[in-house]
């Protein structure tokens, strides 16, 4: 399913390049330029694609998704490197 | 005055909200900088959306559409809907997860840790701050310009130099102070709340304004049909033959006027007698200021008076009329070939040339609410200084040539929104999320929110190209695009709506400024002071105080820079975004590519910034606003020259594409030939499931 989602994202990027409406000044419903309407459609399609992505291709495990306990943080809040501080690069 | 009152009430509301949110402040640095990771889906959506939508969202979108037509939606908005959500999904969620695990507050902390390199921070710090500062300046300066524009005539006798409105420096100062106060007291929580409030304000007011403007223009259909009739190119991405024809006629008329003007005023080789002038005026129907010049030009042409000019004199005339700086040494064919419009535009325009309008129209400039001649109301009201400059440009400079949007440029513009992946202020917002699920709403709703704001603004911008008021074009040629929306609202709606819309524009600006100020204060504190001073040297309370002091300093510094009015800063916007985008491969590889090494990361950053500096220099420091890297034609690769019109068939690419390709290649090649990261680091960042 993950591959299908990434396929959809790629398809969106391809459909974004709408050469077929480049020279078209048609007004849909009498007021909406067709090129603008098409790209508004791309925005809606992007929202649908990303909705599917959140359902089928979520990048982290649910186990990692526990809310942060701010009163008792999981770590000291100090990245390892700043404790070692130096000697590199 | 009504506008000013509404703006003042709005700013006061914002302060109350900031101070209220500060009551929830827990007193810790984590709470100040990351709101104790307590931001849920709705606040995260609104604060991220508010942060990514800057002054460009309302002012820039309508302005760009006025200039380029509907194509800007695809180039800037629908592309961002795809790419921004991609960044939130692919980078934001991972960054949040690692930030939660290892307690990061800034980007640099993450990179130091992941790349096992302390000094990467020293390299990244000036680059990130250097790229954020022009971005901050855009907001501060835009707020001053907008407030000044809508408050023209608000004062009876003060601020005459600023058209009797709030001076831009004062408006910028007040906006900086308001943002500073709620960021100072509320920290990240105050910022998130203020962003949510402000995002709702600018979205709602944007849509309301759209309907009122449409109604004033005779409805949706009438407004769009006027564009189809007068400027059809604005409804597509190529040039309509009728627009090309209209331009050619207008340019031919301008050339004749340039010749007459130069011969009569500069060379003084033509001088019409009073009788000739009378005959010229009698045959001309006055339509706009300075019409006498047009009448005399037509007369001179009809009577063959312009034939005495040599080609060299004609070329001098074109430069003079268009306020271009003449070359020190004239090209060899100066006296043999007449300059084309494209060649003419390659000579830079004299800075501040339009200020000559103050002198020419001195008797017309005054308080915009007072009549020039109280005994003769038909003479109208006094002009603002802005109008004098506008009339000067419209009546003196050559008309703009219509141009298409190149499909390759359109495609490569997709690389620009990748910048959100490396924005330090967005990185900090990601870390504020309560849990990873909080990202789902922003990822899905962001493209739709962009559509809700941008579609009405793009339509308004396109309508503005053909809108009329009392039978006259609402906007003269060379009208500054970024002033289109505010001017249109002021001209056709009530002062109350103008006041509300201004509040909406300021909301869009401030909802970005606050995050940026907080972020720069945070990275100074965390990545420099605390990192090098030692974590144990400062108590948590002291860390908050240091962050607040840095925020004051950065607000003061930004305001100070804005006083010099570096107008080119608006063009710098895309260059700033391109700089951040060129570092996108680094964050992507740091999260997903185990083989990324410390040396590979350095190669990526150094290549990105070297290419940025080189291409920025080639663009004449952003002076060439349509700068692209072009493939094909006479040479395999070339850079756009000033005023150059690129022929169809040549592949135009945004410089950001080359920067990203270069930095990616350097990162991969150097990583593959250098020592991989330690197993300990790999285990921490890529744990086996």
Report on this structure.
The complex is a heterodimer of chains A (89) and B (689). Chain A has 89 residues and is mainly α. Chain A has a domain at 1-59. Chain A has helices at 2-16, 34-56, 80-84, and strands spanning 27-28, 32-33. In chain A, strands 1-2 form a two-stranded antiparallel sheet. In chain A, β1 and β2 (32-33) form a beta hairpin. Mean pLDDT of chain A is 79; it is low at 70-89. With 689 residues, chain B is an all-alpha fold. Chain B folds into 3 domains: 2-222 and 402-563, Up-down Bundle (Sodium/glucose cotransporter); 235-396, no CATH class; 571-689, no CATH class. Chain B is 64% helix and 2% strand. In chain B, the strands form 2 sheets. Chain B has a 3-stranded antiparallel β-sheet with strand order 4-3-5. In chain B, strands 1-2 form a two-stranded antiparallel ribbon. The N and C termini of chain B lie far apart (64 Å). The mean pLDDT of chain B is 88. At the A-B interface, α1, β2, α2 and α3 of A face α5, α6, α9, α17 and α19 of B.
Q: Detail the poorly predicted runs of chain A.
A: 70-89
**How many separate helices of chain B?**
27
* Helix fraction bin of chain B: 55-70%
Chain-averaged pLDDT of chain A: 79
Largest sheet of chain B: 3 strands, antiparallel
Q: How many strand segments of chain A?
A: 2
Please list the strands of the largest sheet of chain A in the order they lie side by side.
Answer: 1-2
Shape of chain A: elongated
Write the element-wise H/E pattern of chain A from the N-terminal end onward: HEEHH
| Helix/sheet category of chain A | mainly alpha
- What topology, given as strand order, has the largest sheet of chain B? 4-3-5
How would you describe the oligomerization state of the chains in this entry?
A: heterodimer
Q: Percent of residues of chain B in beta strands?
A: under 5%
Distance between the termini of chain A: 41 Å
Distance between the termini of chain B: 64 Å
> What average pLDDT do the residues of chain B reach?
88
Largest interface: A-B, 57 and 78 residues
> Spans of chain B of 5+ residues with little confidence (pLDDT < 50)?
none
